[in-house]
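Design job #97: recover the sequence.
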């Protein structure tokens, strides 16, 4: 095959392409089509100016809610539970009936104790009558002795008669003493019987198990028909939950720093906030209640307690309750909206917009959050502008159009 025969088809292809390009150019020229594309307008972003002002610094501590008073309700006597009178989880009053134990054995014991008391009282009456008889006999025999004594001195009566009268008088005196001893025994038996009646009455009263305090009654730990006694455990627990107590622990260093605020709990500058498990802040502020007597040597923390009003008994013992409170005030803090900060793998960046509306990305060091703002520890200067809304698609060096940022709370 010759070289000309190989190259000929390529020359034909190039010629055809050139002709086609000329035809397309003529068509575009005649139709008025434009070959250039306009640049897109700069994006619009909302910017906020870095603020500088004094802000409170808050501390947060994990806590657990518990009742102000938690009263365990137990059986005091042995018997079978007949009824449960309260609704579990409901509010009960002090003295309100919670459980009933079969009272028949205790009523019988009370009746028997009363009968024994009546018998002791009857015995006392009998002994008092015997003492009266003994006293009368002794008085008669004493008269005989008094009558025979002068006669015996002048031999007007025989010595035998006088001795008989004297012996009879002594025997009657002993009868009086015996009667008085019997009366004392009967009176003691009455006291024993009265104590027995009181004990039986108390035991009978224990068959009605009542709430010792006002509060929320928990789940019943024993059911109707169970045999219960003083060692069978807690029947239920009643907790006073308004106000409700929150236990939380702070480090020893934090405790020392908080001493001035803890020692002045009546001042308004140390109000406590309660953060619930869903992240919401409880509507009622709390107040400091007490600090434990010692620091836990294993954890290096000390337990504190706060009280929170709990109208409607919404909060319950055992709930998660993080405590938040101001610990100091930071002077001249720089703040920007939280939405302006982007977190990437543990680092924080913001989009800075200069006076010519040029964008640059800058790393910042963040501090605590306060409301919707974030304290910036470094990386920004007061008065600089940062992009808040619309910064997701920004790139360094871009030119943007700005408008002031308005938060949802403005």
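Job complete. Output follows.
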């Amino acid at each position: 095959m010759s070289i000309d025969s190989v190259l000929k088809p390529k020359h034909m292809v190039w010629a055809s392409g050139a002709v086609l390009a000329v035809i397309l150019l003529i068509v575009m020229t005649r139709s008025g089509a434009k070959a250039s594309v306009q640049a897109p307008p700069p994006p619009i972003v909302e910017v906020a100016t870095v603020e500088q002002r004094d802000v409170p610094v808050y501390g947060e501590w994990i806590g657990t809610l518990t009742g102000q008073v938690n009263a365990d309700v137990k059986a005091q006597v042995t018997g079978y539970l007949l009824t449960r009178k309260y609704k579990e989880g409901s509010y009960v009053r002090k003295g309100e009936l919670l459980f009933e134990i079969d009272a028949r054995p205790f009523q019988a014991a009370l009746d028997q104790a009363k009968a024994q008391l009546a018998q002791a009282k009857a015995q006392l009456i009998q002994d008092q009558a015997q003492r009266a008889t003994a006293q009368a006999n002794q008085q008669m025999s004493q008269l005989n002795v008094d009558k025979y004594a002068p006669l015996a001195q002048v031999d007007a009566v025989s010595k035998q008669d006088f001795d008989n009268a004297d012996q009879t008088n002594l025997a009657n005196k002993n009868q009086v003493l015996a009667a008085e001893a019997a009366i004392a025994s009967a009176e003691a038996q009455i006291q024993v019987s009265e104590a027995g009646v009181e004990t039986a009455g108390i035991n009978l009263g224990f068959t009605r198990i009542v709430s010792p305090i006002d509060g929320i009654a928990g789940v019943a730990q024993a059911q109707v028909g169970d045999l219960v006694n003083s060692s069978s455990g807690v029947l239920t627990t009643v907790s006073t939950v308004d106000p409700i107590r929150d236990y939380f622990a702070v480090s020893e260093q934090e405790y020392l720093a908080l001493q001035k605020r803890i020692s002045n709990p009546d001042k308004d500058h140390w109000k406590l906030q309660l953060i619930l498990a869903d992240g919401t802040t409880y509507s009622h502020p709390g107040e400091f209640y007490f600090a434990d007597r010692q620091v836990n040597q294993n954890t290096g923390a000390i337990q504190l307690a706060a009280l929170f009003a709990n109208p409607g008994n919404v909060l319950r013992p055992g709930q998660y309750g993080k405590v938040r409170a101001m610990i100091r005030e930071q002077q001249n803090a720089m703040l920007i909206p939280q939405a302006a900060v982007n977190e990437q793998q543990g680092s924080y960046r913001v989009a800075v917009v200069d006076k010519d509306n040029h964008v640059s990305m800058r790393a910042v060091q963040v501090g605590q959050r306060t409301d919707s703002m974030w304290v910036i520890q470094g990386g920004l200067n007061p008065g600089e502008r940062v992009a808040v809304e619309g910064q997701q698609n920004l790139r360094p060096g871009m030119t943007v159009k700005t408008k002031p940022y308005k938060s949802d709370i403005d």
